Automatic annotation (TrEMBL):
Pathway: Amino-acid biosynthesis; L-threonine biosynthesis; L-threonine from L-aspartate: step 5/5. Keywords: Amino-acid biosynthesis, Lyase, Pyridoxal phosphate, Threonine biosynthesis. Its cofactor is pyridoxal 5'-phosphate. Belongs to the threonine synthase family. This is Threonine synthase. Residues 97-367 form the Tryptophan synthase beta chain-like PALP domain. InterPro entries: Ser/Thr_deHydtase_PyrdxlP-BS, Thr_synth_N, Thr_synth_N_sf, Thr_synthase-like, Threonine_Synthase, TrpB-like_PALP, TrpB-like_PALP_sf. It comes from Marivirga atlantica. Residues 2-80 form the Threonine synthase N-terminal domain. The modification N6-(pyridoxal phosphate)lysine is found at residue 107. It holds the Pfam family PALP. The keyword Amino-acid biosynthesis applies.
Amino acid sequence: MNYYSTNNKNTSVSFKEAVIQGLPADNGLFMPQQIPQLIDEFFKELPNLNISEIAHLVLANFVGDSIPEEELWKIINKTFIFEFPLVQIDDKKFALELYHGPSYAFKDVGARFLAFCLDYFYKDQDEKCTILVATSGDTGGAVASAFAETDNIEVVILYPSGKVSELQEKQLTTFEKNVTALEIDGDFDDCQRLVKSAFLDEELRKQKMISSANSINVARFLPQSIYYFLPYQYFSHKDKIAFSVPSGNYGNLTAGLFAKQMGLPIHQFVAAANKNDTVPRYLLNGIFEPHPTVATYSNAMDVSIPSNFLRMKDMFSLEEMQQLIKGYSFSDEETLDTMQSVFKNEEYLLDPHGAVGYAALKAHEQKNEYDFGLLLETAHPCKFIDVVNKVTKEDIYPEEAKALMQKQKSSIKMKADYEQFKQFLLR
Ligand SMILES: *Cc1c(COP(=O)(O)O)cnc(C)c1O
């Protein structure tokens, strides 16, 4: 399987090159040249397959001959090490909990698959590759814990001092060996600027092999299509199932669109957004018109120019998108109301991102358009404890998270100064 760029259909690179490059040089996004069709036999067998078997049957098509069969099994077995429980909330609605991985958010799936693919690709190099990541919170934890398990890669994580939660900070700063956390005296934009400067610095790049773990990497979103298959182990193929996807960069939703294109009978997608609602507005009026980004309770979705929109546009016309995807957007007040009422009436605790997804599912249910509504619950409520404490003061931290909070933080403090950052990288 080869990949083209959304800006140039004549580009043709292997899975390996697409993963290592991350972004095509023409600033488009990589897309597979075709979406493989899964055969009837696969769907007949689906209820009997475990998640690694599903992942292997699906992902082998996209990986092609970039990774030998046996190595791909190893990568998949290391990626899908946690559960994805389907929890019933009421008669028609379920939560597919994607947050039982090491960083308590669904980003673990993509970060782990990417980390182990890169680890395999870099195994024969003399020099270790260094991954640079700027994080405002959620991505960093997933990337740090995934790459901590690699042998051939160093990771440098830059985060804004005092601007991430205590749990998030511990998720960034408690690894030894190959993961270094730089605590930057500045904000997230400063962190991103330092990383960008490094990628543009020819002199640095001659001396050091650097790469990114960017969320638009094909190895990050493709494995996210796997969990869409799991509910069909319980439901019939005739059931009309709607998936509500709390969305920011639309990587998770795009992964679902891929699952559908491969033949999974998904009836409807519900794009659930907070007040950063560029895509829901686009679905209504066909105009892509980003507004300035606003801060919300569901801050991992505070994105007004979603990067994966390019992939969605590449796959579907506006009319097709309007058929497939219904968009909804909610305020912080509605998000909190949803958390409170679902906790009180259904005894289910949503995190703010899941709450936006639930609200969208409920709004869509009123149109009577699905048999079952599935919400992708993208993060554990303990990751957003300030908002969750407005709903309940119960102790909701998993044991592992408590143990993590007890650990000693280890970070290197640094000014938001490129020369200092460069000296550090060349140390
Ligand atoms: C990243 C993230 C999202 C948004 O996912 P996209 O793939 O960017 O749309 C939603 N919820 C949580 C908790 C996240 O970390």
